[in-house]
Amino acid sequence: MSSMSTESTPSTESTPSTDSTPSTERTPSAERTLAARPPVEPVRTTLADGRELLYFDDAPGAEHVQEDRRDLPPISTRSEVRHDPLLDEWVSIASHRQSRTHLPPTDECPLCPSTPDRSTEVPGYVYDVVVFENRFPSFSMRVPELDGGPDLPHVDRRPGRGRCEVVCFTSDHNGSFSTLPPQRVATVVDAWAHRTAELSRLEPVEYVFCFENRGEEIGVTLAHPHGQIYGYPFVPPRARQVLESARRHHERTGGCLFSEVLAAERAGERVIGANAHWTAFVPAAARWPFEVHLYPHRKVPDIAALDADERAAFGPLYLDVLHRFDGLFGSPMPYIAAWNQAPTRADRELGYLHLEVFSIRRAAGKLKFLAGSESGMGAFVNDIVPEQAARMLQEVAL
């Protein structure tokens, strides 16, 4: 991929006015949209093993327990990345993650607040949103130079330098993102934006990926409501492929592929909801049984570039989508929510921020497994027609 300017100023390109929104859209009411507010600034502290932790509060002035009372050894990781010459992709090797915490009982959850009798990953006895460096990271700025290892003359090997963080959305162990109030979602968005901007400045980091895995069916190892942020030392394969598609489209037509896709979807039958700044829709070529994309109407490269009104408008619409997911089959929907952002350096002008949320559940009690075609060849076969999935989501009674 060619080297482009590092200028981070977002484009003002947008799709047509919301006046063209069809009457079939499900639009969250104005009363559910928060007033814009200044971004939340975090309170920083350091854990016992040297990892950084940041508290993000719904309102300023909160006091936090700073001292981590645990006796922890320094973090040690020898993560590395290896280049697959056949696929032209980087693969991360992080064997120390085999020993990470796996589905502990509630009273041993490491993401719950500390108490006077028990210390966790969060020193505070209460918190709104907290972000900290992962104790079992796939990438870390502490990774040393490679010494020794197998002789692989056909494979490029590098230290797995980058950053992996955990984002706790609430101190309520039994909650979920869908049960957060809109004000808390705004705090989470501020945390994502802050961390995106800060991780983007780290020299090894080429792509910042904010995401949430929900549900044991997805592979979650901790039940507490949380997400993660990866600062990759490379542009991951799917993001690179999407950017290449956007580049070819621009070279061929002079237009923005993302803006044109959004304009077409906003005029179609698969819209799930919309407001003045965002539209949520089932994509025409959805890979997953239930898949919704949320696009801002203004082209921006990343979460940090969203303005106050766009940040405030995101939460009510996203919560509406998650409530529809949970209402489909009358039980919590397992899902992955994946933010697509522009790379931190090259090709920023090609990127268009959007969120993709999708589930492997195709029916009550039935999951879609990535079997031969999907896992072996990367060729998806969807069991649900996208228009049918959109109608099912539109018809959920909230």
Q: If you had to describe this structure to a student in words, what would you say it looks like?
A:
The protein is an alpha+beta fold and about 400 residues long. It contains six helices and 16 strands. The strands form three sheets. Strands 1-2-5-7-9-8-13-14-12-11-10 form an eleven-stranded antiparallel beta sheet, with helices on both faces. It has a three-stranded antiparallel beta sheet with strand order 4-3-6, with no helix packed on it. β3 (about 80-85) and β4 form a beta hairpin. The longest helix has 21 residues, at about 310-330. The chain is globular. Mean pLDDT is about 90; it is low at about 1-30.
Task: Explain briefly what this protein structure is.
With 398 residues, the protein is an alpha+beta fold. The protein has helices at residues 182-200, 237-253, 257-266, 308-328, 372-377, 386-394; strands at residues 43-46, 52-56, 80-84, 89-93, 129-133, 157-159, 163-168, 207-214, 226-232, 271-274, 278-281, 290-296, 335-340, 354-359, 361-363, 366-367. The strands form 3 sheets. Strands 1-2-5-7-9-8-13-14-12-11-10 form an 11-stranded antiparallel sheet, with helices on both faces. Strands 4-3-6 form a 3-stranded antiparallel sheet, with no helix packed on it. A two-stranded antiparallel sheet has the order 15-16.
